[in-house]
Amino acid sequence: MRIEKPDYAANIDYTRDKGGRELLYKPEYCDMLKAMREDGLSVVQFCAKIRISTQTFYKWKKDHPEFAEADNVAKAHAEAVWEDRYVAAMYENTVNASMFNRYMSVRFNWAEKQQIEQKVDVSESIRKLQDAIDAYKKDY
Questions:
Q1: Which residue has the higher pLDDT, 79 or 105?
Q2: Is 95 helix (H, G, I), strand (E, B) or coil?
Q3: pLDDT tens digits, residue range 114-125?
Q4: Each residue's pLDDT tens digit, 46-57
Q5: What pLDDT, on the 0 to 100 scale, is given for residue 1?
């Protein structure tokens, strides 16, 4: 199923500064990011569309709280879009569940199970138990 995507970046001025550095941040990128992510597109696709590196994207998130918030909200929407697509594909029997799970685990950190490791020092408990056994043996 091919999905037609709107041209989100139709009005972007790709002019670089005199040193050829990355495109400068503009507040309207928040709305563009939300629109793209709400259509299920990734950060990499957003960066490619406006011709910036992912390094620049994450720098913008760090430097511009409104951009970071836009991405946080939009990420939830992107995940919901993919969940909706998965449910629709399930009902149509056109889904490859293992491929979908792999995609979601890489893109949204999904996990079928959580691995929990816990280290416990039981040496004191064992020593007390051994003392109790030794005391019991002395009495009999």
A1: 79
A2: coil
A3: 667 778 788 888
A4: 999 888 899 999
A5: 45
Alpha helices in 10-118 (DSSP H): 29-38, 43-50, 54-63, 65-92, 97-108
Number of residues written out for the chain = 140
CA dihedral 2, 10, 65, 63 (to 10 degrees): 110
Count of CB atoms situated within 10 Å of the CB of 100 = 17
- Do the beta carbons of residue 54 and residue 47 sit within 8 Å? yes
Percent of all residues in the chain with a pLDDT value above 90, rounded to a whole number: 20
Q: Supply the DSSP symbol for 113.
A: S
Owner of token pair 């996990």: 111
Burial pattern 102-132, b for ≥16 Cβ within 10 A else e, equals eebeeeeeeeeeeeeeeeeeeeeeeeeeeee
3-state secondary structure at position 60:
helix
In angstroms, rounded to a whole number, what is the distance separating the alpha carbons of residues 47 and 36? 11
